[in-house]
Specification:
two-stranded antiparallel sheet; binds uracil; 6-stranded mixed sheet; binds iron/sulfur cluster; alpha/beta
Length: about 230
């Protein structure tokens, strides 16, 4: 698979333009069976950027990220943590739904490294338009896409961390030449908070405890925003 890079218009000026171009991405095989590309959603000026794994069944049908059960849970947790829901940009590491058929049902299948790598240019392009104060890394796939293979969500969750020097930073992402001026002006140092994926809360044996853990981690994000 060629990867997403060749589908990104070099002069893309806005997230809206990137979103439109992503609709035609054939950068990996996932576009074939999925209904549509699910691009990120939210304000370019968002103070917080959430990065999930990939769209689910509902997101695939609606064309919007986090509008299914995991999304409802996430919104409730965001609200409970005291994060302003109008200050968010929400996206995924992989922009097409990967699934396998079980009878008539489409069952979520975790994306492989090849899909993460193929789709990563869209994430890079999104970060070049965004300047969040905090990036919320939701689960292992987002961590792999943003921070590389050695980051462990279970070990580092709920901590406000500077973007690791060893990882590709959103600041570097922001140096990807895009837009009329070719460069972003200034980018504040970005922090991150990793936490479990809301889908993992839905699957947990003790759902209440898992949910409370997610809310506690998101309160760290709220605290960082002041
Ligand atoms: N899970 C994700 O990671 N992203 C979505 O958009 C929905 C569910
Ligand atoms: Fe392109 Fe990403 Fe979809 Fe693959 S998953 S086709 S790289 S948008």
């Amino acid at each position: 698979a060629p990867g997403a890079q060749e589908f990104i218009p070099p002069g893309a000026d806005s997230l809206a333009e990137l979103r439109a171009a992503a609709g035609g991405c054939h950068g990996c095989e996932l576009h074939r069976d999925a209904t549509q590309t699910v691009f990120g959603r939210g304000d370019e000026r968002a103070r917080v950027v959430f990065v999930g794994e990939q769209p689910g069944d509902m997101e695939d049908q609606k064309g919007l990220p986090f509008v299914g059960p995991a999304g409802h849970l996430l919104r409730r947790a965001v609200d409970e943590a005291g994060i302003d829901p109008t200050q968010l940009y929400i996206t995924n590491a992989v922009k097409h739904f990967r699934f396998e058929m079980r009878g008539k049902r489409r069952l979520h299948k975790t994306p492989d490294q090849v899909h993460i790598v193929a789709c990563r240019p869209w994430l890079v392009a999104e970060f070049a338009k965004l300047h969040p104060e905090v990036v919320v890394v939701l689960g292992a796939t987002a961590a792999k896409a943003l921070l590389g293979p050695s980051f462990r969500v279970t070990r580092s969750r709920g901590e406000l961390l500077p973007w690791p020097e060893s990882a590709q930073r959103p600041q570097d992402f922001a140096k990807v030449p895009v837009g009329p001026t070719g460069q972003r002006e200034s980018v504040p140092p970005t922090q991150l908070v990793a936490t479990i994926h809301p889908s993992a809360v839905l699957r947990a044996d003790d759902r209440d405890a898992a949910y409370a853990g997610l809310v506690a981690d998101l309160k760290v994000v709220a605290g960082a925003l002041g």
